[in-house]
Prior knowledge:
Layout: H1 5-16, H2 27-39, H3 44-59, H4 63-84, E1 88-93, E2 96-101, H5 106-111, E3 122-123, E4 129-131, E5 138-142, E6 145-147, E7 159-164, E8 168-169, E9 172-179, E10 183-185, E11 194-198, E12 203-210, E13 216-222, E14 227-232, E15 241-249, H6 254-264, E16 269-273, H7 275-278, H8 282-290, E17 294-297, H9 317-335, E18 342-343, H10 353-357, E19 364-366, E20 370-371, H11 380-387, E21 395-399, H12 406-421, E22 425-426, H13 429-432
Parallel strand pairs: 1-7, 3-8, 10-14, 15-16, 15-21, 15-22, 16-17, 18-19, 20-21
Antiparallel strand pairs: 1-2, 3-4, 5-6, 5-7, 9-12, 11-14, 11-19, 12-13
Amino acid sequence: MRQGAPARNRASSSANRPAAQGNVRPASYNRSRAQANRNNPANAAVYNDYSRYTERRSKRPGPVAIGVMAVLIIAIGIGVFFVLNPPTFDITVNGAKHTVSNGTTIDKLIDDGLASPTAGNLLAVDASVITEGGGDRFAATINGNATNDGSKKVKKGDAIDIQNGADVTEDYDSSTEEIPYERVEDNNYWNGSLHVYIDGQNGVRTTKTGKVSGKTVTEDTTPAVNEEYKIYTANTGDDKVIALTFDDGPWKDTTAEILDVLKENDAHATFFTIGKQIADHSDVVKRAHDEGHEICTHTWDHAAGSGQGVNLTYMTADEQIQEVQKGFQAIKDVIGEDPVRIMRAPGGNFKGDIVWTLQPYIDAEIGWNVDTEDWRRPGADTIASRIMKAKPGSVILMHDGGGDRSQTVEALKKALPQLKQEGYRFITISELLQYDPPADSSVSK
């Protein structure tokens, strides 16, 4: 019995100790463990961590604190909502300040009498009135942005301008048809120095039939552009520019001498060359091109043969085409590139069927405003005085080939310095064609 007594005492002692509620240790226990940790360094880290854990648990907010925090958050949210979405706010309508309710639309502003626009009308396709007031109710801007949406809500501080509504055209069915262009020709070669082609373009005609009125209207929505051979003189405005042109070269000595005079006077010119003469004078043709002058064709052989040496219109269509194509090819063989598609017909004979025969091959045919008649050799002074008659936009006709052109060389030496002193510049035909060219012409593209 004595031997069993200690066991009962231990049991009794264990039973008399306060029972732990859950897994939470009493504070006295924690303090004793902390003391033990100080006495036993090996266990110090473990029990220190546990102490911090239990201390943090004891500091967590309780249910009441959590509830208070939730109420505060909700209250702040409601406050922010009402700040951003106040039940009423101020706006400006047509310059007057008004207080309106949240959710107010433009329609409501009008219904409440803050603006009194007059609605537009519903129009037929012929612009007659079908229904008065059947168009847009109003025309408005909100902070400068246009709208005709009556359900558009206004916001705090908006500046709204509400005016009368626009007319509205009825819905309609439409159909289109093509308008063929016509060909128009100016038959007077002397109406101007520049003769260009305007490409024809078909137009579009639209027919509309109103779905409400049943009315029908027809209009040319895209007008046709007639194919045209147009003759005019360049309008250079205040620019004092003229185009010096030389026919019938290249020529032994004379062409090179003219190039020297042009270079001395900072002048560019256009040479209308005879194709079959180019190969024998290729060096001077290349020099002219390299110095910025324009090399164009005056046909292959000046309309020799059936053209009687002066008139392409006497030739067949095939012969006319060959005269131009061979003339262009001779230039290309020397300058190494396609020349501009510009020509001058011998004698200025360019009217009738030849105009349309050569249309696919050229962009322009060039006449003149000033004929020096230097081919008659009237004297250098006479030629120079005729050159001096040029006006802004003029094309001057001279010759560097076809005979003795020494008078022309001397005339240029006299006239060009004087024209320069008067403020004139000397440009190529292509440059002159860029002054106010006719719309849709080949030279304007």
